[in-house]
Design brief:
The complex is a heterodimer. By secondary structure, chain A is mainly alpha-helical. Chain A folds into 2 domains: 106 residues, no CATH class; 242 residues, MetI-like (MetI-like fold). Chain A is 73% helix and 0% strand. Chain A contains 16 helices and no strands. Chain A is globular and about 85 Å long. In chain B, α9 runs antiparallel to α10. Chain B is flat. By secondary structure, chain B is mainly alpha-helical. Classes of the chains: A mainly alpha, B mainly alpha. Chains A and B meet through α1, α2, α3, α4 and α6 of A and α1, α2, α5, α6 and α7 of B. Chain B: It comes from Intrasporangium calvum. Chain B: Its main location: membrane. Chain B: It is a multi-pass membrane protein. Chain B: Belongs to the binding-protein-dependent transport system permease family.
């Protein structure tokens, strides 16, 4: 379909007196461009580095915080644009073939630089630190790993993390499917309203969500009126008020914390699954109806197989979120009453206990846990590219 | 069997209506409880459930003193400004860098292209916790000594958001017709010109999608802000977390503080929901 258009342009766009600016004609080395490019890049990087360091070292120069924020936007975005301008000029000055070979890396470099600095280098450095002592000044071999695996708190955190991983992604996906299917049967206006309200918690931070749910789990002494919704219902049914987040029986407190995350994430699952369900071709449903299938059979045997890809994507995304669950546990119980999880344990080792060695060893355990997910992501991407 | 029909001709489903109504109520009640409680006096909130205020609205001691108390008394005003100063640059700065990289991944061929892109996909899943101890070394007193100020947090969020931004933009750019870029090339445009004049403007929807997700992520972040900002520069989320930590006194301020922290992301969410959904459906996963 699109083959006809470029052909026309192709014929029109090649007059005999082609402009010297055409990329194929950039043959010779242009030392002036190379020089301006290099000087420009150095100047931009020097200026930006000093500007941003000045924000930190001499904030009083800039008057108000808002000024710093605005300058950061102008400096960051404008600086990036000017940097690319000089990078491009430098590359254009190079001899033709070299220029064509270098330009992709020039486009990639600044973005990859940030990824390398903030994620790749730290990954290796973290592995390195995990074999060192609490302030990373001397190697201690495997001692940190022995310490954390010998710590019952760590083992309990692993168990809790596994419990979170078994429960939350599955419930979120199941809930998302149910809401997506049911809302699809509502009127257009009703569907929009219902989905917006269920989606809304997506905007709420885990800390604020914890504040919201602590209100629901609140406890007053027996005899007083209960201000927490859960205890009000519980006492209304004849029970005595409970300090819910301290009940370790059957991991009830952990499950109540999971409810917070499910409440936050359900909308995300619903939105993705809903758009997948709307993409199921009507004629496949119609064919099944003509064959006499019940709505229930149609759902399980026609709809579900066609949205399987989205179900897996949502599951994996929620799974990754749950693996690193931190905020909710940190602000509600900080891991006491048997609710600790790995990321919270990591934070307390790093922040409260200043045990860098043990903290980084915990991260390495987390890293090992995500390796299968990295493999899955890459395979998923390759499949998608093959179907493109 | 006669079934009632909706305006668009589909059969009315009473079961769906009942179940969905219940679910929507269930999902909205927690936030409603917070909102109602934040306008009640300390004594009222401590002695009766927030729903009783809804049942007897005239017997309730409605007040906005919780908001003024938390805004000035607990200095949420500073936290609020800090959140804005942290979140907006951290949302915008990654975009320019990522857009160039996404352009290269979409429209150029070069050795190790697949390797670099698989690297981006892999680091999307890597937990950001890996960065903390090494970056505390680089930015902290052992290194540049800029830990505690905004710049460290901007840098970190730029780095953490970069893989996702490249991924979302690249997915979007690969849906653009290649004929546009081809013809620009034949017209003698360099890649730099093609990027600025064609591809960047056409990618605005994907840029908005990423920006919405990244803004919510940075605004709602606790970990990075708590570790890398000093108390003068800290965000409203960290302020709220600190208020949650002080049990007992100031409980009535907590609900108002929580609501203050929700207002901006809620607004962004309502206004830009469309873009956000698009960002999510383009396969957004973040480590």
């Amino acid at each position: 379909m699109s083959t006809a258009i470029p052909k026309v342009i192709n014929e029109e766009a090649q007059p005999p007196d082609r402009s010297v600016e055409g990329p194929e004609n950039v043959g010779q080395t242009q030392p002036v461009k190379i020089l301006i490019g290099i000087v420009g890049m150095v100047a931009v990087v020097w200026f930006l580095a000093n500007l941003f360091l000045a924000f930190s070292y001499y904030p009083e120069w800039f008057g108000h915080k808002i000024v710093i924020g605005l300058l950061a936007i102008v400096g960051g975005v404008g600086g990036a644009a000017v940097l690319f301008f000089f990078l491009n000029m430098f590359v254009e000055g190079l001899p033709g073939r070299l220029s064509q070979g270098v330009i992709p890396y020039v486009f990639l470099f600044p973005g990859l630089f940030f990824v390398a600095l903030m994620l790749i280098y730290p990954t290796f450095q973290t592995i390195n630190y995990s074999f060192a002592n609490s302030d990373s000044t001397a190697y201690v071999g495997l001692q940190n790993y022995q310490t954390i695996f010998g710590d019952s708190e760590f083992r309990q955190s692993i168990v809790n993390n596994i419990l979170w991983l078994l429960i939350v992604p599955a419930v979120v996906v199941a809930f998302g499917v149910v809401v997506a299917v049911l809302s699809d049967k509502l009127s257009a206006g009703g569907e929009k309203l219902a989905k917006s309200l269920i989606f809304l918690p997506m905007a709420i931070s885990a800390v604020s969500a914890s504040a919201i749910w602590l209100l629901i789990y609140a406890y007053n002494n027996p005899g007083q009126e209960q201000i927490g919704l859960l205890n009000a219902i519980w006492t209304g049914l004849g029970g005595s008020p409970q300090v819910w987040l301290q009940i370790e029986t059957a991991k009830l407190n952990s499950i109540l914390l999971m409810v917070i995350l499910i409440w936050l994430q359900a909308g995300f699952a619903m939105v993705l699954l809903s758009s997948a369900i709307k993409g199921v071709p009507e004629d496949t449903l119609e064919a099944a109806r003509i064959d006499g299938a019940s709505e229930f059979q149609i759902f399980w045997q026609v709809v579900i197989p066609q949205i399987k890809g989205t179900i897996i994507t949502v599951f994996v995304t929620v799974f990754i979120t749950v693996l690193k669950i931190f905020d909710i546990v940190y602000v509600t119980t900080n891991g006491s009453y048997g609710t600790n999880v790995i990321a919270n344990l990591f934070f307390n080792k790093l922040f409260a206990a200043s045990e860098a060695g043990q903290a980084t060893a915990i991260v390495v355990v987390l890293l090992i846990a995500v390796i299968p997910l990295i493999w899955y992501q890459i395979r998923h991407f390759r499949n998608e590219e093959a179907n493109r | 069997m006669s079934r009632r029909l909706m305006k668009d001709g589909r059969p009315l489903s009473p079961f769906s209506i009942v179940v969905m109504t219940l679910l929507v109520i269930l999902w909205s009640i927690p936030t409603l409880g917070l909102l109602v409680t934040s306008f009640r006096s300390r004594d009222d909130a401590a002695t009766s459930g927030w729903w009783s205020a809804l049942f007897n609205p005239f017997a309730t001691d409605w007040t906005t003193s919780n908001y003024s108390g938390v805004w000035t008394g607990q200095d949420f005003s500073t936290g609020f400004i800090n959140s804005i100063v942290v979140a907006i640059p951290a949302t915008i700065i990654p975009i320019m860098f990522a857009a160039f990289a996404a352009y290269a991944f979409t429209f150029m061929d070069f050795p190790f292209k697949e390797f670099f892109f698989l690297l981006i996909i892999a680091v999307m899943v890597v937990p950001i916790q890996v960065a903390f101890q090494p970056m505390l070394d680089i930015l902290g007193p052992r290194g540049l000594g800029i830990s505690g100020s905004y710049i460290g947090v901007w840098l970190l969020h730029t780095g953490f958001g970069m893989p996702l931004c490249i991924y979302v933009l690249r997915n979007y750019m690969s849906t653009l017709p290649t004929s546009v870029v081809e013809s620009a090339k034949i017209d003698g445009a360099t890649h730099f010109q093609t990027f600025w004049k064609l591809v960047a403007p056409m990618s605005i929807p994907a840029i908005a999608a990423f920006a919405t997700l990244q803004f919510l992520w940075v605004w709602n972040d606790l970990l990075v802000a708590k570790l890398f900002l000093n108390s003068a520069n800290t965000t409203v989320i960290v302020k709220l977390q600190q208020l949650l930590g002080t049990q007992g006194q100031g409980q009535e301020l907590l609900t108002a503080g929580a609501f203050i922290s929700i207002v901006i992301p809620m607004l962004v969410f309502v206004l830009l929901q469309r873009f956000m959904v698009r960002g999510m459906t383009s396969g957004a996963v973040k480590g």
